[in-house]
Amino acid sequence: MGLLRIMMPHKFQLLAVMAFGVAMLCIENQIQKLEESRAKLERTMARHEVREVEQRQTRDSLRDSPALPEIEDLIIIYNRVPKTASTSFTNIAYDLCGKNRFHVLHINTTKNNPVMSLQDQVTCPLHYTQLMALFHCMVRLSLAWFGLFGVKGKPVYINIVRDPIERLVSYYYFLRFGDDYRPGLRRRKQGDKKTFDECVSSGGSDCAPEKLWLQIPFFCGHYSECWNVGSRWALEQAKYNLVNEYLLVGVTEELEDFIMMLEAALPRFFRGATELYRTGKKSHLRKTSEKKPPTKESISKLQQSNIWKMENEFYEFALEQFQFVRAHSVREKDGELYLLAQNYFYEKIYPKVN
Length: 354
What we know:
The protein is an alpha/beta fold. The chain is built from 13 helices and seven strands. The strands form two sheets. The protein has a five-stranded parallel sheet. A two-stranded antiparallel sheet has the order 6-7. It is found in: Golgi apparatus membrane.
């Protein structure tokens, strides 16, 4: 090296030293980057291991912990629309209430008035609060939708709708011939033998398009505009209440699916309801007697009315919403319906469970 230093000119010696220094700096820089990358990788692996431990602890704690207690102050309000299979549905609740430990209250109003007086709207929340303090219960009443003012706990609203013409035809014959539920009871129009088709052809009042206006006001509520026949505002308000105030609104034509979904959502009340509906003797207890299907001519005449168009629009809206909810709750296999398994899970819980 000394001989090389003697033989090399001073200028080349200086360049060699500088090149050596630069090379060393590059090597040190690469070493530092490698160390930083290693440290970053170690931190990432550590966070991953901690996350795995947290998730494992969470899963273990959820698996080992007792089931969450069910709500003990829940009240279901079923403001049933007449002639939509309400008695068939309520009979299932009657059969289950003893086994599932809840009460069913059937509330009637004077002359079946679907609108509550102002004083009743004020006192009803007081009674509701008292019921909340006593027991689980399902309240069945024939009232237009109403909110409960001044109460902390909100009830669960459910209901059923039906094709508007089918509902009117059923109601028409029910008033004349009753049903097989209480066959000896005299009905308001008993003795009138005129068929529904004869009523439509003669322009009778009991089959007039105005008689179709019922499901919209029942869902619209206690606003005066709800009861103005043919009100577009009432229709839109009914739609709003259906999707914002009701847990579930079924359709008469698909009653079994409605019951199955209620059993899945509210097992405290409806555990065993689906099997009871399929095999029980009371699931279709109430049937209107002497009912004759209307002709195509009668149906076509009613369908020319704007009132039918609006009631049918509401029914189609309710049906579409019900089918949407059902599609995310139920699957069909080999002709049988099955509830979907729970598809949500707890990924993290803070503060951490020890």
